Amino acid sequence: MDDVFDPWSPEFLADPTPAYAELRARGRVHWFEPTQQWLVGHHGDVSALLRDRRLGRSYQHRFSHEEFGRAAPPPEHEAFHVLNDSGMLDLEPPDHTRIRRLVSKAFTPRTVSALVPYVEQLASRLVAGLVAEGGGDLLASVAEPLPVAVIAHLLGIPESDRAPLRPWSADICGMYELNPPPDVAERAVRASVEFSSYLRDLIAVRREKPGDDLLSGLIAAHDDGERLSEQEVISTCVLLLNAGHEATVNATTNGWYALFSNPAQLAALRADPEGLVPSAVEELLRYDTPLQLFERWVLDDIEIDGVRIRRGSEIALLFGSANHDPAVFARPEQLDLGRRENPHISFSAGIHYCIGAPLARLELAASMRALLAQAPRLRPVAEPERRPNFVMRGLRDLLVEV
């Protein structure tokens, strides 16, 4: 598969869809030696495996590292794994069930609905700033500050403390790339320590003086006497920040770059924003998927297309490929903002379906509407550069003028 799937090459990162098409044409499952993973790229398989309880985000609820045939993480990475492994994204039942239930008590649809005026006003203000400057970097001016401010506002993080949030998040998320190098791991560990320390201090303040914010709600959440531990609260806050804005930042810039590259679709959106924005958000999430890959451990032997995959193996579910599978999407390489049937899996599926999906949709729609209303002639002024990341796909910048 090395001749097709090369997630470190600039050519692949520029546009992985031809490689995905070749991968799907060659079969349903492929061994990829560089990462010691099985690659799965068909929509039906990816969707089914996300729901298959023979696979898991973790194996430690059933096996030790030795029993599972895996080496324990190196001791110098402990701070990252303490933080990461206590979050519900990397837990399995019963811990995942308990934590998600408790988080859901604080992070309700009503909580998200109450954010609508704040999100829309903030998006409008950020876009107004971009317009006043005559343009600039859409990523730095709108795409990044909007979700960071929203999740910080939701959690109750004071504005004066927000500057390190995005750098901490970016450093931690570096560990989710394939085979991260030592310097990336070192930055992730350092960010894990610093972010955890900050939240531990803020939790102590909120315990003394609870506020009307999600952090206070997480501290207070209980069910039949069960509560989140301090580490679970910390890990949940970091997960909500990382997942709640990394994907939204990339979805915004990937989406606008796709619109600029498809002028007829952009013209249709400008002509009917109210009618097309909801389906445009879904189509842009599908078309240039911000999270390209999600991993699962094989807890019990499975079989895919006659290939037996043993317990202890790791499977890489290729969301970007699944979202371009012609068996599910008519003309998948065509951007169609009015696409009616759009079962994309950009928010995952099964028990780990993104709890923040409604908030992400709200933010993406708000920024899109604000840009369409206030910058109706928005256009790029330079070809953007891709970040050298595969798993979390995005741009370094997106320079525009109004």
List strands and helices in order, with pairings.
Elements: H1 10-14, H2 17-26, E1 30-32, E2 37-40, H3 43-51, E3 55-56, H4 65-68, H5 78-85, H6 95-106, H7 109-114, H8 116-132, E4 135-137, H9 138-143, H10 145-155, H11 165-173, H12 182-208, H13 214-220, E5 222-223, E6 226-227, H14 230-261, H15 263-271, H16 273-287, E7 293-298, E8 302-304, E9 307-309, E10 314-318, H17 319-322, H18 357-374, E11 379-380, E12 399-401
Parallel strand pairs: 2-10
Antiparallel strand pairs: 1-2, 3-7, 4-12, 5-6, 7-10, 8-9, 11-12
Helix pairs in contact: 5-12, 5-14, 8-18, 10-14, 11-12, 11-14, 12-14, 14-16, 14-18, 15-16, 16-18
Task: Give the SSE string.
Answer: HHEEHEHHHHHEHHHHHEEHHHEEEEHHEE
CATH superfamily caption? Cytochrome P450
Strand content: 5-15%
Flag low-confidence runs: none
CATH A-level architecture:
Orthogonal Bundle
Give a short account of the largest sheet: 5 strands, mixed
- Average pLDDT rating: 94
Tally of helical segments: 18
Number of strands: 12
